[in-house]
């Protein structure tokens, strides 16, 4: 299958490499010239548990070099989704599918401005990756990937199952679900409970659990998000807060993606995570003071980058 990955950061590069290793024709597209050049010259270097391997695949800073593809995977930050969706529209042509595995809410809706919902795959992944430098990433963690078609219906679910099997054959353990919106919300709860707190304090994911006061801050943020989800008739698992803490423990040594953004003074995805909860709470007549505070602090920090 010919596949384009729009956004060749750590996660985009990882998925591109895994799919390439399974015999697919994969292209990475990114505006970071140093990274693109390094991949083309030396392959993508992947570190995993102290071992190194190199994967050869195509990379370009010009999407026009790729040509039509059967699947486009969007892995940019949520602030860049609309631009990436426009690129995906050109790559997908009249029949290709577009997939988003991005963090935060609103990404699928942004893609749907350009691609009909029947051709949009949405999902979440528990894989973790860190960019070590141009042409080099660390595969920090392995976990399940869950996908579903943005347009509901049995036909779409059948298609999602086919792609789940395709990804699983490439070593990306994937399952298809009919109700992908609740899955995206479940990932949002995790990001709400971990990302902003770790970004503001400089701690790693697992350190959220070290102090009772930090755990309660995370719990309060997640419970506000749960209230919003239930008001929107989203199915919420009973032990959602416990699941957030379980993820923090499982990724204890990881620095969250938002934390990495702050460390490198990049714009974060706060608007699509805690900020999304604040906007939805306001729309529904609910209160979300913890998420409002976390959002305001991250936005203040970003504004005062050097």
Description of the structure:
With 306 residues, the chain is an alpha/beta fold. 46% of the residues lie in helices and 19% in strands. It has eleven helices and twelve strands. The termini are far apart. The model has no long low-confidence stretch (mean pLDDT 95).
Order of helices and strands: EHEHEEEEHEHEEEEHEHHHHHH
Shape type: globular
The SS-based structural class is: alpha/beta
Give the helix proportion (percent range): 40-55%
How many structural domains in the coordinates?
A: 2
How many individual helices? 11
Work out the number of β strands.
12
User: How would you write the strand order of the largest sheet?
Assistant: 5-2-1-6-7-8-11-12
Condensed summary:
This protein has 306 residues and is α/β, with parallel strands linked by helices. The protein has helices at residues 10-21, 33-42, 81-92, 107-111, 154-169, 180-201, 212-231, 240-250, 257-263, 274-284, 289-303, and strands at residues 2-6, 25-29, 44-48, 51-55, 58-60, 71-74, 97-100, 120-125, 128-133, 136-141, 145-149, 174-176. The longest helix has 22 residues, at 180-201.
């Amino acid at each position: 299958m010919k596949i384009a990955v729009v956004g060749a950061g750590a996660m985009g590069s990882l998925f591109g490499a895994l799919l390439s290793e399974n015999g697919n024709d994969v292209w990475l597209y990114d505006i970071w010239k140093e990274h693109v050049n390094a991949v083309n010259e030396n392959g993508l270097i992947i570190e995993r548990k102290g071992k190194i391997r190199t994967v050869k695949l195509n990379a370009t800073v010009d999407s026009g070099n790729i040509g039509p593809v059967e699947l486009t995977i969007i892995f940019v930050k949520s602030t860049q989704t609309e631009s990436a969706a426009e690129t995906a529209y050109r790559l997908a042509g009249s029949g290709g599918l577009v997939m988003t595995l991005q963090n935060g809410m609103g990404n699928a809706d942004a893609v749907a401005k350009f691609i009909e919902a029947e051709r949009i795959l949405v999902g979440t992944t528990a894989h973790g990756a860190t960019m070590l430098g141009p042409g080099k990433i660390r595969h920090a963690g392995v976990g399940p990937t869950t996908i579903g078609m943005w347009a509901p219906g049995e036909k779409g679910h059948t298609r999602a199952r086919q792609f789940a099997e395709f990804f699983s054959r490439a070593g990306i353990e994937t399952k298809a679900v009919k109700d992908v919106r609740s899955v995206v919300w479940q990932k949002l709860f995790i990001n709400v409970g971990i990302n902003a707190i770790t970004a503001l304090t400089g701690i790693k994911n697992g350190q959220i659990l070290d102090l009772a006061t930090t755990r309660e801050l995370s719990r309060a943020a997640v419970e506000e998000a749960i209230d919003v989800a239930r008001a929107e008739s989203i199915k919420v698992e009973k032990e959602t807060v416990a699941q957030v803490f379980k993820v923090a423990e499982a990724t204890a040594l990881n620095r969250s993606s938002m934390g990495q953004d702050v460390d490198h003074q990049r714009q974060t995805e706060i608007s699509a995570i805690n900020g999304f909860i604040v906007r939805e709470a306001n729309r529904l007549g609910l209160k979300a003071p913890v998420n409002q505070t976390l959002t305001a602090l991250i936005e203040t920090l970003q504004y005062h980058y050097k």
